[in-house]
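Morning!

This is the sequence you dropped in the shared folder:
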Amino acid sequence: MSAFHIAIITVGKVDDEELRLTTVRVARLLRAPLEIRGRLPVPQAAHDTERGQFRAAELMKSARSMAPQLGSGALVGADGVLDDKPPLKTDGYIFVSDVDLFTANTDGVFAALISKAGLAVTSVRRLRESFYRRSADLNKQRSRLVKEMARMGARLRGAKECSQPACVLAASKHLADLDLKEEKFCRDCSLHLFEGTVRI
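The structure's back. Tokens below.
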């Protein structure tokens, strides 16, 4: 999996230190360093004024078109920032935003994916307790973001959704689904991702 290089790009207002701490945990899960590249403005062309939300696919495509202006970033591994330079080739992008996202036939989503284009996005908006008018819980919110970023990273790598509810690769349609998951892949998904084998 280390040959597949993913760049993490902030779109909008996401705390830099929070993103770094989260990315360290995601790198540990994916067993590969990730590049934190920088920050882009929220593309207003993706905004749906009637809904007051942002179209996930349009946001990803617009952000991808702006990504080259950022140049290279810093590699973050399982133990923090690495001294190595990021690879020249980027295989996939995970955009992390603070805006409320939706896709066709949904009221809102935590994350979205265009796998063929190597694009994924996750938003902290619906991962925060404040969205549900509850007291903030930083540990819970950070764990949710770790799981969604890791799920998107694995999907970019070609992994499929998992039927095991506790696996990071299980679908996350509701917050309860996300909170049920552990910060790890199930045995079968681990074998597929890191060993290149499938259990029979």
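Headline: The first helix runs from residue 16 to 30.

More detail when I'm at my desk.
O.
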